[in-house]
Every structure is written in C-alpha cells, then in structure tokens.
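This week, look over our next protein:
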Amino acid sequence: MPFLPALLRRATLLAGLAALPLVGGCAMALDDGLVTGSTGRPSASAPREAAAPRRDAPAPATSGWSGKAGASGHPEMTPEAITRAAANFHQCLESLWPAAAQRGISRASFERHTANLTPDLKIMDFMDAQPEFTKAFWDYLDMLVTEARIEKGRAILAQHRAIFDDVEARYGVDRYVVAAIWGIESNFGTSIGERPVIRSTATLACVGRRQAYFREEFLSTLEILHRGDVRPADLKGSWAGAFGPTQFMPTAFKRYAVDHDGDGRRDVVTSVADVIASTANNLKKAGWIPGQTWGYEVVVPKGFNYLLADRSRQMTLREWEHLGIRRVGGRAFPRLNDRAYLLVPAGARGPGFLMLNNFRAIMKYNPAEAYALAIGHLADRMRGGGPIVQAWPRGERVLSRTERYELQQRLAAHGFDVGEPDGRLGSKTRAAVRAFQSAAGLVPDGFASASLLDRLRQRTASR
C-alpha cells in the first residue's frame, strides 16, 4: 500500500490497529520492490556525475533513543546492530548516491540534502513499539468519529466547496470520504508531524529492520526535494516519513500526487487543491466506483450462518437480502446488484456491516478494517447521517497482545491453521476461530473474546 499503516505511522493515534481484525499495517503494505519515477530520470547510457569527497560527517545522534532492543526480536533491532548502523550512517547514504543519480538527482542536490544529516535513533523505539493492550473496535470509532471532527469537517467542506466540486467531478470520488481521510489522518492539518521527512527516511534506509523498503522512500524524498514540489521547510511529517494533511508516503506521492492548482508543483502540504485532488486520485487509482457508497450497517438475523461473514465471500446485496440480512431502519438498498462482504467486527453481539468495493478502496489507503470503517462512518456523519444504530458489546474485555498470541498457539495445538502465531488477529486466525467455534457448538462469528480463550484453556487442561 502506498501509505504508511497504523502500526508504523500512527504511533499515537492508531498504535493498536494492528491488533484488530485487519491485515496488518499503511498499517503499511511494505513493498520492498523499487518504484521508478516517471520523470527526470536519465537514460541508461547517461554519464553519472563523479562523486565528490564527502565533508566530515556529523557524529551519530542518539539523543532520545532508549538504547533498548526492539520488541520484534529482529537482528537489526538489537542495540549493537543499531549502534553499528548509526556509526556507518554516512557511508550508507553515500552508497545510495548511484541510485539517486539514476533518477536525475544532481550531486549538488544530493549533497545539499544529505551532508549534514544525522540518524534520528529515537525512531527505532517507535518502529518496534508493540503495545501490550489495544483498543476495541468501538473505542477506535469513539476516538476518531467525534462531534468536533464532524463539525470541523462540515466547515472544511463548505470553505473549499469549489475545489471539492471540481475534484469530485474530475475523479468521481465522494468528497465526504476525502474530507474524512483529511480529518482522521491529521485532524484537518493540525497534526501532520514535525520530523523532517528526509532525516526520517534516511535513518530508516540505513538503520533498523526495514532498510530495503525505506531506501525507496528515502530516494523518493530526494526526488521530491530535487524537483521542488514541496519546499524543504514544509517537508515534515511522522517518524516514518508520512507527510501532509492526508499523510502521503514519498512513494505514494510519486504515484498519486497531482498539480491541481496549476502552479507547476505537486504540493500536498500547503496547497489545499493539491491535497484534495491527490487524495481523490489515490482512491480513484485504488478502484473507487463513482456513485457507490462504502457500505451499510445491517441487522443480521438470529440463526444466521456466520461462516458466511468472511472477506472472501462476496455476494450481491440481493443475495444477502435473500439470506435475511436487512439494512438498519428498514431502508432499502439502492443498488441491489452491488457486491459486498459481511463484516461483524464484534461478532454476533455487535452490529453488522455489508462492505462494498469502495470500502476495499479505502483499505488500500490503510489496510485496517477499523480505520476504513471510521473513514466511512465519519463521511456519513458529515453528510448528515446518524450514529451507528446497534449496540457494541462494550462490556467485553479486549485481549492483550500476549493473550492473542496464546489464543493462536492454543488454536494451533488443537489442529486449527492460524499461520505463524504473531499476536495479530488476521484472516487466518479469524477463520480458525470460526472453525473452533463451529466444532464446539458455538456461534461461529470469528470474534476472539476473552471467554473464547478461557474455553480453549479449559479444553487444553482437560486433555
């Protein structure tokens, strides 16, 4: 995915999303393949500028870093490995000069933006943060979809109505969803991060466990600065390099940013027009279908076969109706041929949702179902819709990361396929939970509750 995920890029706001039923973390889809820029790249036969001798490199900065090993246990996240990589920081950057030259970056530009960099090792603590306790699905919605954010979003939509009109007509993407992303990613531009993107991506390109991925982000940052799309003073963001009101990663900027205001720069930091249009372009490229919503809250009938509540099982809304699924409030589905899957994030005791193609498009922005649901719901609230109708099981205790890991181990011990236990409740784990529930005569809704873990413990003890 082009944007950085919850686990990496929202250490404060969404640090626990990776523990919810989701694929992982914008959450980030970490693609180690290189992305080639479409402009400013010399031909293969073009000579490279000779590498000038580097000036005396500043000493590595360790201020703020805990000095502790990362929770992942990765060999590159030990204190010794981090310290060693930091000492080699400028040699690492120099080794990336040939790749930068191939993208048309001049030696002078490379020197200007890298010569005085020091590694920001505090990032290592953020990178491997593994929160022991996480928020429930409903707690995230409470935190992200607030009355203050709804009102601010409506004001933003009114203030920039002409831009939203033009962008919606050009890209076919719902303005309310674009505004919701703006609101949740940065609280409408008030919390975009203060770390220089060039320093963050340079650090991550040379230190830690994701160097192959972040070298592409670093080189893309150099391209942005070399071309002048975003001024250096404005290119600040999260510790992992996401920047601007809708939090573009540098590689995502290359793919999706557009110059909507026609000033010759794709400025997704200070140009409202470019921010709105670039975000809409991202969703369009992700497969957004004009005129379709993201999904519907639905009532799931008693006795329903929850084995059908799976992201891989898409059916038309007409087919879901035949199975007894109804939209809340008795309202009709406007497009019965639209295809959707059933999501029951809190199991049979909570609300259900039929998720359409556009929900999947939002998930390509950040592949977390909790995040995408918050975006869709905030968009509907700004549009004038009401809160989620059905009650959440707020008395249900959320499993800690250690307990989720234990749950996976116990399921595996009973012969259920969870993949490699990692403490995250992904699609394989949910399928295993459903299979266990079905075998135990329980409602197979895939909800990993504390009571389910207790039942697994009892079964193990009775062996």
